[in-house]
Amino acid sequence: MSTDSRYFTEDHELFRKHLREFVLRELAPHADEWERAGLVPREVFRRMGELGYLGIRARPEYGGSGLDHWYTVVLCEELMRSLSVGIGVSMLVQSEFATAVLHDEGPEELRRALLPAAIRGETIWALGVTEPGFGSNVAGLQTTARREGGDYVINGSKIFISNGTRADFITLAVRTGGQGPKGISLIVFPTDTKGFSVGRALDKLGARASDTAELSFDGCRVPARNLIGEEGKGFQYILDHFQGERLVLASFANGFMQVAWEEALKYGRAREVFGKAILQHQVWRHRLADIRTQMEASRQLTYYACDRMVTTGKAHKEISMAKLFATETVKKVVGEVFQLHGGYANIEEFPICRLYRDVSGFTIGAGTSEIMREIISAEERL
User: Fold this and answer.
1) What is the per-residue pLDDT for 1?
2) Lower CB density within 10 Å: C or N end of the chain?
3) DSSP annotation string for 267-326
4) Which residue numbers are catalytic?
């Protein structure tokens, strides 16, 4: 993937080089095995932590590197070279979804107690927001946390929770007050708490290397000191951190398109039809020209959105645009590359087969395309 010197420094590019070498050497060769197992082994979290990839933006006092969002963009793009979205999802849920809100909003005592082990990859974290009846409608969630003395007593359920089958901690969205967004809080939930159970691991179409679970909370008692930030501010914390999550999804999509593009070139140059290579046929050269144009538009929009977030701190509209465009575009691009492969696209030994499965969740995770359009239209006061 070509890079843009307006956004990336020599340090970013050196980081990309070493990361790509690591992905190709230590992750990609095991992707098939982890896809079949339905999860990424714990030792991979520890290895990622050892190399500093789980604490890129975390402050040094917690064991992080204190770097900017551009390093996260590079991380997301290059992890897609593992040819498994599930590997990337598992790692970024840890570093950018579940622990980021604790890092930014949590009490200092809790940060110092929990973040270093997470950044080292010694503990696995999940983000528990989505419920069986409430996906995009976060404000409607019904899992309750009732205050009793020095504890919260939690009852309810969650679904589609990445890292959920073996997480040690969950950044859990709960209802501590009345209905609506102002009744929601965030709590750090240790999964060794009595009354907690994993209902089942979900068998998904794509991202199979990322374990995904249903979770149940039955009278779970958690210390009140595990509250992240202020009671009743959880919904706002979730909205604020959705920016980072959506940047991750857009960057995943851009990296994924680059992988699909390289697979298209490799196959299109080697496969002959009607006496010449596929890419010697004008129809496919033109279709690939369209693909490359869409890829570049997606990448530049994502970089613009990241730049806005880095320079202004908030870029809800731009990040939503990038997430919408990149995730919709990656489905089109992978679909075209699938078509180029013909019947071989359906054969598991060809990477495009997994890419086609994995692309299915891009427009749903971290807010659906429909929600992105709602945010954009609201920002434009339509």
Assistant:
1) 57
2) C
3) HHHH-EETTEEGGGSHHHHHHHHHHHHHHHHHHHHHHHHHHHHHHHS--HHHHHHHHHHH
4) 245
Give yes or no: residues 27 and 41 share one domain: yes
Domain that holds residue 170: 125-231
Q: What's the pLDDT at 136?
A: 78
**pLDDT score recorded for residue 2:** 52
Same domain for 240 and 373?
yes
- Torsion on CA atoms 207, 211, 213, 219, rounded to nearest 10: -150
Domain boundary among 178, 203, 231: 231
What pLDDT sits at residue 3?
Answer: 63
Q: Which CATH number belongs to the domain containing residue 263 in this structure?
A: 1.20.140.10
Q: What residues contact residue 284 under an 8 Å CB cut-off, 6+ apart?
A: 268, 278, 340
Positions in the chain whose pLDDT score sits under 50: none
pTM of the full predicted structure?
A: 0.96
Helices 85-92/234-270 angle, 10° precision: 160
**Is 1 inside a domain boundary?**
no
